[in-house]
Every structure is written in C-alpha cells, then in structure tokens.
Amino acid sequence: MTVTVADIAARLPVVVGAWADPDASLIDGGIAPAPELPIAALRSWARWSSEYAAMKSAPVAYAMGVLLAAAAGCLGMAREIEGRPGWRQRPALWVLLVGAPSMGKSPVLAPVVSLLRDLERDEAEGFGDVRRDYETKRQAAKEYADKWEATTKQAIKMGHLAPLKPVEADEPEKPEPPALVVQAATIEAMAPVFRHNPRGLILARDEMAGFVGNIGKYGGDGDRAFWLERYDGVGLSVRTVKAGHVQAPAALLSMIGGIQPERLEQVLFDSPDDGFIARLLLIYPDPVKPEWVTPVADMEPLRQALARLRALPIEIEGEAIIPKVLRLTPDAGAMFGRWWQDNVRAGNASIGYRAGLLGKANGLVLRLALVLEYLEWAAADGPEPEAVSRASVAAAIALLEDYLLPSTCRAYGVAGRDKGEAAAAMLARQIRHRGERTINAKTVYRYWGLPGLTASKAMNDALAKLQAGGWVRPASSAVSTAKGGRPPGDWEVNPLLWEAAS
Length: 502
Fold this sequence. Notes:
- By secondary structure, this protein is an alpha/beta fold.
- It is 48% helix and 14% strand.
- Helix 6 (187-196) links the parallel strand 6 (181-182) and strand 7 (201-207).
- The chain is globular and about 100 Å long.
C-alpha cells in the first residue's frame, strides 16, 4: 500500500499558524466522564427539574441536587425510615454542586434558598406576640427577683434564714424565631439555633469550600465530631462562650452549596479519613451549552411542595423528639435487601474514598427513598404515606447507582492524581474560565490564589505540562525593555481554545 503525503498530513495535528490542537484531557486530568442522570427516577419532578435547569442554563443534575437537599431539610426530624428492625435513617443529605463559577451553581441554588426563606418568614408570623409575652414574663420575673432580694437582705439583717428564691423570679428562656436556612457554620453560632429548631436546619451557601475545608482546623477533633453527628441528628450538649451550656435532644442538618473543582482538590487532599468526605454527594456534571430560553419553570409547585413537607407534624414529648417511622413495603424491602447484599460485596472489594462512600450508600438509599416518597406525596393531593413504596426504593437505587455514585467517584478522581497534574488541570480550567489570551506566570502565582500554585516552581511545572499539551507557549513577540526582549514569564494561550468554546 502506497502512503501518500496527504495520508501523512491527515495524521498530523491540525494547526493554526504554529499552534496544534490543545490536549483537551488536560482540563480534567483524565477524570472519568460525567454520568448521565436518570431523570425519570425523579418521577413527578423530572419535567420540573429539566425545565428549571434549562431556564438557568445549568446542568439538570444541579436542579436534582438542590431539589433533594431542600426536600430533605424540610422533612427533617418529622419522619424516619426503617430499613429493618432497629436500623433507622433520618433524611439529611449533604450535597455539593461541583463546577467552575460559570456553570450555573448559584443561579440554580439561589431561587430555591429564597423559597425556603419565604417559608421561614411564614412560620415566624405571630412571633411578635411570643416576644412580647417573653418580655412581660421577664419583667415580672425581675420584679419578683427585686422583691426577693429585698426580703433576703431584711431577713439576714434580722438574723433570720434567707427565703428560698421563688420560681416566679427565674428569668424565662428567651424565644428565638423559627429558622430553616442558615449560613453560619460555627458551633458557637449553630448550637443555640438547633436548640430552638428541633426539626432540623439546612446549611445553604454559594461557596462551601471554606466550611468544608476548615472543619477541625481550629477546634480539632471535637469540631469534626460535632458536624459528623449532625448527619444523623443525634442530640447535642456543648458549652459556648455566649450562650453557655446548650443542649438539644436532636440536631439534624442537611447541606447544599457549591464548590469549585480546584477547591475540592484541596479539601480532598487535606481531609482526614474520618467519614466526613464519604457523607458528601458530589454533583459533578459537564457544562451545558448556553442557550437562551423563555422562562418556563414555575416555582409555585416547588413552593407548595416544600411548604407541605414543612407542615408535617413533629411529635415532641418533654425534651424528646419522636419522629414518625415509615417502614418499607414487603416488595420494597425485598428489593432493598437484594441491592444491600450487592453493595456490601462491592464495598468489601473497594479501597480508599470509594470504600467509604459505599459504606454510607446503604443508609443513603433509604434516605433518598424516604425523600422521594414524600416528594411524590407533596406533588399531589392524597393521604400521607404510611410506608415507603417499591417505586421509591427503585428510584433511589437508580439515582445512586447510575448517577450519584459515579458522579461522586468522578470528583474523587481529582484526589487520585499527583499534585502536579492537579495543579496543571486547575490552571487550565482557570485560563478557560477567565478567557485569558496571555498570562504572566508571576502574576498568576502571586494574585490568582490557586491552591498549590502560589510559588514559582509549582507554576513553572504546571506551565510546562500545559505547554506539552499545546495549551500555552512562551510569548513570541519581543517587547522593548531596558535590557531588550520580552518581559519574563509571559505566555501565549492557544487561540484554538476559544474557537472550540464558541
């Protein structure tokens, strides 16, 4: 067979001027491809999630993550699910939307948080009367205390025993308005809020890296233990500077927020293996092509559904919270049992982050099934469910197996690379996000604030990897300086990157 010049040319990289096609794999460092979301598993909420994501030019997986976390937080301690006798799960979900700043994390999250705050305000109606009642009782207690103090002084002066302080002189506990969404992420700030909100809370923040990355850095293992316990809603007993000794019979927390891949890398590299990371569901889709669409997603069905979840009664006896327990229907139990056996075998055969994730997956399927069951109920009229159906268990398994596990493991992939590869991928993403046509190495490591790229050697190593992949090259144009030549550290960015983006 004769090989022609045209044959050889066809095998060579396409060039524009002196530029070859950039190596696209550098931007994710060989991370696994994003899984496809089984949108049908959301059942009554599949269409709404798709329309809502399209309206925000964001991946539909983001809409799914926000929907599930919001529903879990509204359900809270009011309901539990029992997988088998004695093994119960409470519906807290910890969801992180992973992606670059331009992927639509905040546009998807913000309107749902706004709905949750509206519910919070609705529940606070009438709190003015509660506050005035408290102030009345506090003033009365002060008068009783003043009278008791005067009586005590007189008794002591006369050589008599001091009278016992009357119950009426004790200052009443200050009430707090109902809370649902919080942004504070310190034990000092959160413990009193849990005390007054036994149903549970939702921590919602645009950027969760600061919270996730700083857990335990200042308060040590005690801080990490506090947050780990919030996943299961166990009671708390902590001492704070402002509020003193704070106790609560239960304190359940759901989380939803965004995180950039480079910040996630830092968190994964630096976190101890104590189970915190294994509790995180990492929604890590590919970007969607931006399209201008007429807004069609109606937020009212979601508002009504969340309000209905929030209105479910919660039973409190004294200081004890008694959630209503839903069990699996017989066919749902059989399905879950078969899946549970397969998952345990898979977990035993795994190591590292994946092993921890699979270890939490058993309870996670139950949590998802409970949330999905109540989302279906909240979307339609009808009596409250008395058990979790086979359809909800099947939907939970599909979401976990087909999307949540692969997506979370995809995000774990950033921790499986060496730090040089991670740094190069991080720099590549930032160049794309910023739309840079040229960069200066010194400017990047001094001012961009990229983890692992704040020193010249690390920057030069990352640039060398990008140069080998056809992303950048030393600037070719000479600029007159005092000594002649180009300023040191200037790099040109491959223009083919912007042609591909457009």
